[in-house]
Amino acid sequence: MSDSTADPPVLIRFPKLAARDLEERERTLPDDFEGAFNLVLIAFRRAQQSLVDSWVSWYGTIAAEHPTLRCYEVPVLATRWSPARPVIDGGMARAVQEQEARRRTLTVYTDVRRVTDGLAITDTETVTALLVDADGRVRWRTTGAPTERAGAEMLSAVGQEVAEPDGQLPSIEQFDFVFDSRFRPLLAVAGITPGTAHVTLGPERLVARFGPWACTTPVSNVREVCITGPYRWYTAIGPRVSFVDHGLTFGTSASGGVCLLFSEPVPGIAPVSALRHPGLTLTVAEPERFAAAVRRLAGLP
Fold first, then answer.
1. Among 196, 13, 197, 206, which residue's Cα sits nearest to residue 119?
2. pTM, two decimal places
3. Could you tell me which of 40, 71, 160, 287 has the fewest CB atoms within 10 Å of its CB?
């Protein structure tokens, strides 16, 4: 293996992803990673399979010495390919003879940004290799082909105790929206689904994606966090802009949400780029936990 440099360690929570193995079994990631530690190979292009294979081959040389370590291939495809999933996955399955290999290949069809945002992946032109523990924490990461240095760094991370960040190394975490079943068909027409609606919170910025819309701001721009609701459905469902103060809502439920107020108004409703929003309300599935995480990262009481 040639020499390369791994990315600096950062504590990231692996985002929740719906997957399916090549034996057509539904899987939920990261919950269905079976190892105490898992080498997860994220690929975005068919041409990257040779890189994935090189990691799998390397894993085969050390697997017997590390029985708590499992290996998974996770091809990520855009949602638009979902109708062709039987053909694409079927072709993969026919090319893979071993049952173990079919079971470790977990295809994900989603908004690719859900994966890149949640895992802080900046380059989809190569493979990203991750070490994910049983709690869904990313312990180590690198990109490209396996190298002597990368392999040694990954193995040294296996079994190491990693404490939760205390403020200097906050986690990157992804939060889902809660969808009221009554409004899911209406939202889906606008391209808003559980796969395309998510909030990624990191040490530097907050990114809320809502189908074709997105709102991004530095976490330091958040000056106040409030849990609000319930709302009237006709003021909460879908992307909404207040006529009173231009506050923006990304809403999937009328039961309640979290309102973020900004020091500097931010854009969020394209193509009206000149419109700035002093606040953003998000109907996330875990409002208390989300609110606490934003307060912690923004340095708010």
1. 13
2. 0.81
3. 160
